[in-house]
Design a protein that fits this description.
Blueprint: H1 4-19, H2 25-28, E1 32-40, E2 48-51, H3 52-67, E3 72-81, E4 85-96, E5 99-111, E6 117-124, H4 127-134
Parallel strand pairs: 1-6
Antiparallel strand pairs: 1-2, 3-4, 4-5, 5-6
């Protein structure tokens, strides 16, 4: 049975990743360390490293804008809880401009000593499909 710190971290990770791509993502920003780092793998329009709450907020606003709020986690497949990390495996669907993207993503979330989210890394099952959907 996980201790209360682990439950808090799991709840924080769940709350944060479930707000990604939605208009109310600003509420999730309170869960972030001031020095948070958000990494999105790939060579597409949303790829990069975003440091600090402001950059992460801008990145998530751009995601919401590009997807027109259609990012939908169809199924949260699994939540993996470790000593210092929480990983979430999800099936995603996004529509934009008559195009549809579906794929599996992994969000790896780590925490600072105050149980705030210190880093988020986003991995894609099919990075080329993400690149085709979002473009360079």
């Amino acid at each position: 049975m996980p201790n209360s710190a682990h439950r808090t971290r799991l709840e924080a990770a769940q709350q944060f990743v479930m707000h990604i791509g939605h208009r109310d993502s600003e509420r999730a920003m309170e869960l972030l360390s001031p020095n948070v780092v958000y990494r999105v793998q790939g060579q597409h329009a949303l790829a990069g490293v975003f440091s600090g709450r402001e950059e992460v907020t801008r990145h998530l606003a751009k995601l919401q804008e590009l997807t027109r709020g259609t990012l939908d986690s169809l199924k949260w497949e699994d939540w993996l809880l470790g000593a210092d990390h929480v990983a979430a495996l999800t099936d995603i669907r996004v529509q934009s401009g008559g195009r549809l993207y579906t794929g599996r993503h992994v969000y790896l979330v780590s925490f600072d000593p105050d149980d705030r989210i210190a880093e988020v890394v986003v991995f894609f099952e099919d990075e080329r499909a993400v690149e085709r959907f979002f473009g360079p």
